[in-house]
Design a protein that fits this description.
The structure holds 3 protein chains of 3 kinds.
Chain A: H1 3-24, H2 29-49, H3 53-77, H4 92-115, H5 129-139, H6 141-162
Chain B: H1 5-25, H2 29-54, H3 58-87
Helix pairs in contact in B: 1-2, 2-3
Chain C: H1 14-34, E1 38-39, E2 42-43, H2 46-74, E3 79-80, E4 89-90, H3 92-118, H4 125-142, H5 146-164, H6 171-202, H7 207-213, H8 219-235, H9 244-251, H10 254-279, H11 285-307, H12 312-333, H13 336-363, H14 379-382, H15 384-398, H16 404-418, H17 423-448, H18 462-480, H19 494-503
Antiparallel strand pairs in C: 1-2, 3-4
Helix pairs in contact in C: 1-2, 1-4, 2-3, 3-4, 3-10, 3-13, 3-18, 4-5, 4-10, 5-6, 5-10, 6-7, 6-8, 6-9, 9-10, 9-12, 10-12, 10-13, 11-12, 11-17, 12-13, 12-16, 12-17, 13-15, 13-16, 13-18, 13-19, 15-17, 16-18
The chains are: A mainly alpha, B mainly alpha, C mainly alpha.
């Protein structure tokens, strides 16, 4: 096994463990957020292994950087350190739901190898800024411009909801 | 490709399932939001994996869009959590009267 | 019938551009006017700013409507943005849906002006968010690529999350926004996973290429298609993915509720129609079965649950679930005639639903909705015109002959019968029979009981009056003259328009 493949499996295991940690951690929201940070960073490493260099950088900057910081900020602002855990209320449906999820997942994984496309050879600059940038500004210019309106909508929406007093 | 594609897509499916189960079973709003973020991350992993398999960067561009949308959603979502918190000191789903599903 | 040149066609984005620019103008105008003492010789009050912005927004929407109508009248086939990577297209379906979205948004602007004053939440951001959401809908109905489809859905949804929570001091509005947001972003993730799997199965995000490469025996393709349909079922609130709708509709400000019930539903259904035709047509049997189940479940659950509601907004929410069920019949049938019937249904649905919500909005007073059934007792004495209009709108929704609702259901059910679908029309007719009970409860209350409780608002604003009149006239016109009528009504040929719209698809 090559170094890159080894890295993939280590990071995959780390991502799954921390994702489970985030979902199963019932007491501390901050710890859950920290677990998610680790999930995202390990995914960024996996992106590098998969030759998606540009996406890997975005993953660190936007996800692990901006979005998770926003989460932590709100958790601290609202002082949500402890999450009142209510074990008595309806645990059975949750277990059933999780079991159904695992069953569907197992069925999907069992049939997966036959359904996948063949892996193509790639050019040396695959996933580089240049290549993604060209695709972004040439083929995908419409969704790219729409994204700017989307961010505007998010800014206006967040201000309307969270600002203490409006005009 | 250094690892088989089914391992990448399989990992993505596992993370998506964890996120889905978390979003449906947890009661803390911030944790539900984080679970949804995990689902989006799983989708991104699929897109990157398929993109690598096809040797096209369409998937990478799609991931860029997903990340933008995720940031926008989180901003509005946390805005909603804050406005709710102003009127009622709780972010547990069960304390929200409309949210009995 | 695809006509395209090798050059990029920016004109395809004209309606989207107009609406999106409108949102920027509204945002700037609010800042510029809000700071001044007087503007155009009028003292600047909050009401004045609101009315001004409402007017400006509706002008932009109206321009987009005219542009779309122009496309509709002259469109030979389909033009795409860039033939190599289509992304967005302009054809009759896009133009038709854009017109519906613009009408729905204009109605919302007119209704919101007075209503937001009554609720004391009249901020200019409302109109900016409304226009942004509308631009998302316009993009959604013209998407021919999964990436633009996703961006359209999000640009539509994100402003509406904020609009649902626009009454910031009202806990019900906060909770409505929260629930809509949680369901919406969960749905987006599901939808997105479906898109990713389809990309993996077909190697493309373009609808036409997806159809060419689609292999119904491939696990990824089937799972992707299934998740995509589930995502849309959430968006249009089809059973069993509907639980969020009544709570969200009840808690949101009513002007926003009517926008969600109408504009969101119309654009989501048109997008689904386009996906069904262009990315997976001719109708796959499994997809048809899926629509069949969703449709039957929505009709049964929507109608039965509507009966036991005590709140008019909740009742209208369940009735809109039932209406989604009727529309899904057309998708399950999957013939050209059925698609035309779907578009006609959406056209009628727009007017009769906005009309009903407009009455609820016109009655709102003292910062409160009058949305319980008792609030309507004896309304024929206090507000006779409103009582008569509300009767018309609910009777149309029930599907009484002479109204657009009847024609819409009739052509939809007959298209289904013609294709050998027997059970769906039977279920739908039984559901409509049940719906008579909860719809006619309102006229009975209004005409046979004495007024009780606080008096309703006694004056109707110009905007509200315009919306009510337009809706009433449209519902009657579509009912009496669905094809060409006598005299000047001969220009009004709704049935022909919807047939022309679907004839060029595929």
């Amino acid at each position: 096994m090559s170094f890159a493949a080894g890295l993939f499996y280590v990071m995959a295991a780390l991502a799954v463990v921390t994702a489970l940690g985030m979902v199963l951690n019932l007491r501390n929201t901050v710890a859950g957020a920290m677990c998610l940070v680790v999930t995202m960073i390990s995914l960024a490493v996996i992106y590098v292994v998969l030759d998606a260099h540009f996406v890997a950088v975005l993953q660190i900057m936007v996800y692990a950087g901006a979005i998770l910081v926003l989460f932590l900020f709100v958790v601290m602002l609202l002082n949500l350190r402890s999450d009142a855990f209510t074990p008595s209320r309806a645990t059975a449906p949750k277990v059933v739901g999780a079991a159904v999820g695992v069953a569907v997942l197992a069925a999907f994984l069992a049939k997966l190898p036959d359904a996948l496309p063949k892996v193509a050879e790639i050019p040396a600059d695959f996933g580089s800024y240049r290549q993604v940038g060209l695709a972004l500004y040439r083929d995908y210019v419409v969704p790219f411009e729409v994204a700017s309106f989307l961010l505007l909508a998010a800014v206006v929406g967040a201000v309307v909801l969270a600002k203490r007093r409006l005009s | 490709m250094v690892v088989p594609l089914e391992h990448v897509i399989g990992l993505s499916a596992i993370l998506f399932t964890i996120g889905t189960v978390g979003a449906l079973t947890r009661r803390n709003l911030v944790v539900i939001l984080m679970s949804i973020e995990l689902m989006l991350n799983a989708v991104n992993l699929s897109l990157v994996g398929f993109s690598r398999a096809f040797g096209e960067v369409d998937g990478h561009v799609f991931v860029l869009m997903v990340i933008t949308v995720a940031a926008a959603e989180v901003a509005v979502g946390l805005g909603i959590v804050i406005s709710l918190f102003r009127n009622r000191d709780s972010v547990n789903v069960e304390d929200v009267s409309l949210l009995k599903w | 019938m695809v006509t395209s040149t090798s050059l990029v066609n920016p004109s395809v984005l004209a309606p989207f551009g107009v609406v999106a620019t409108g949102s920027l103008v509204v945002l700037l105008l609010e800042v510029l006017v809000g700071k001044r003492q007087s503007f155009l010789g009028r003292p600047v009050t909050r009401e004045f700013v609101g009315t001004l912005l409402s007017g400006v927004s509706s002008i932009f929407l109206f321009i987009a409507l005219i542009v779309a109508a122009q496309f509709f009248a002259t469109m030979p086939g389909r033009i795409v943005f860039d033939p190599a990577h289509p992304m967005v297209a302009m054809d009759r379906l896009t133009a038709f849906a854009t017109i519906l979205v613009c009408i729905g948004s204009i109605f919302t602007c007119w209704l919101a002006s007075t209503y937001l004053d009554e609720l004391r939440i009249h901020h200019g951001e409302f109109y900016a968010l409304l226009l942004l959401a509308s631009s998302g809908m316009v993009l959604l109905v013209q998407s021919v690529d999964l990436v633009t489809l996703f961006m359209g859905i999000e640009l539509m949804s994100i402003p509406i999350y904020a609009l649902a929570g626009f009454a910031r001091r009202d806990l019900r509005s906060n909770e409505s926004a929260l629930k809509y947001f949680l369901v919406g972003s969960f749905t987006s993730a599901i939808l997105l996973y479906g898109m990713a799997l389809l990309y993996g199965a077909t190697g493309s995000t373009d609808f036409v290429q997806i159809r060419q490469a689609f292999d119904a025996s491939n696990l990824l393709a089937i799972a992707g298609l299934g998740l995509l349909v589930v995502g849309f079922a959430f968006k249009v609130a089809a059973v069993p993915f509907h639980q969020w709708a009544p709570d969200v509709y009840e808690g949101a400000p009513t002007a926003v509720t009517s926008y969600m019930a109408v504009a969101v539903k119309v654009s989501a259904f048109v997008a689904l129609l386009r996906i069904a035709i262009q990315a997976f047509g001719p109708m796959d049997a499994r997809l048809s079965d899926l629509f069949w189940v969703l449709s039957a479940a929505s009709i049964v659950v929507g109608n039965v649950m509507a009966v036991i509601q005590e709140n008019v907004k909740r009742m209208l929410a369940y009735s809109s679930i039932a209406n989604a069920g009727y529309i899904l019949i057309g998708l399950a049938v999957g013939t050209e005639e059925a698609y035309a019937a779907v578009l006609f249904f959406l056209l009628v649905y727009l007017f009769m639903n906005v009309g009903a919500f407009a009455v609820v909005i016109t009655l709102a007073t003292g910062g409160k909705d009058r949305d319980r059934y008792e609030d309507y007792a004896g309304l024929s004495r206090t507000r006779p015109t409103l009582a008569a209009l509300l009767t018309l709108f609910v009777v149309a929704q029930a599907g009484l002959p002479g109204t657009g609702g009847f024609i819409a259901k009739f052509i939809l059910f007959s298209a289904a019968l013609k294709q050998g679908f027997v059970w769906l029309p039977v279920i739908a007719i039984l559901g409509s029979a049940v719906s008579f009970y909860y719809y006619l409860r309102l006229p009975v209350l209004m005409y046979t009981r004495d007024p009780e409780g606080a008096a309703p608002r006694m004056e109707t604003s110009t905007g509200e009056g315009l919306v009510l009149c337009t809706c009433a006239v449209a519902v009657l016109l579509l009912g009496l003259f669905p094809a060409a009528g006598p005299g000047f009504l001969s220009h009004f040929r709704a049935l022909e328009w919807v047939r022309e719209t679907v004839a060029l698809l595929g």
